[in-house]
From TrEMBL:
The keyword Iron-sulfur does not apply. Its cofactor is Mg(2+). Belongs to the FPP/GGPP synthase family. This is Farnesyl pyrophosphate synthase-like. Pathway: Pheromone biosynthesis. One of its GO terms (cellular component) is cytoplasm. GO terms for molecular function: (2E,6E)-farnesyl diphosphate synthase activity; dimethylallyltranstransferase activity; metal ion binding.
Amino acid sequence: MLKTILKNMCLKRTKLARFSSQNTNNINNVSENSAFQTQCKPVDLSFETKKMYAAFPSICEEIVDEQLIYHQAYPELRERYFNLLEYTVNIDQPRNIGKGIFFVHSYRMLEKPSILTDDNLKKACVLGWCQRMVDVSVIIDDDVFDVSDWRYNKPTWHSLKCVGQNKAILDAAFVESSVWYLLIKQFKSHKYFPDILKQVLMSYAVTQTSQCLELTKYDVKDLDKYTYSVRGYGFAAPLLRTALYLANIEDKDAHEFSEKITNDMSHFIKCEVRFF
């Protein structure tokens, strides 16, 4: 089961991942004798994608209500933070929220069918959006540091005239704190809440540390040091282990296997992003 999930994790980075039931995939439309014939079957993520997008509006409401509990006299703030979440988190290109979608997919594969109720799937979507918001909080800051003007084929958040760099940095903190609000409110009664919290926090903390290392200039002779640093990129391991805990799977071997193999996968993914 874990091997299948990990294989699908790789497929979601290619055209073999279908985020919509209307997607057509031509990658296998080649001759059976062709050297380019792939043996991998497409993974259908249309169900998870639909569930994720359907859950977002109520999650937004919950976030803004919690964050502005002492600022209810300022409706302009409410509108502003809704715009922030819609602009930076809720990207209409499923591949860009693939981390959250894959999390829901992992949970569906790990959970007992009898437990896959609408309520539990909604909670999985909440965790999926938490994974997405962890990334967004880092991305907003990263775009400021890199003075980037474009992200997802549109202007970066800080480059908008109504935002600017100072507000963008504060907004990144707003997105990050939204993750902890959601986790506490939605999962505090879960048996493995401390473990779920730790995995999400690890994803954020390790990514932030990697960002710090990336701001350092290395000589060619220090390539090995840089290669080691990208191994810490918190993409795969916290994601899969969080899904295991959400499905109430504490099996030590399963967690150790996930940690070991996803560490190398995250190394490959990071190198792929940087060098190709």
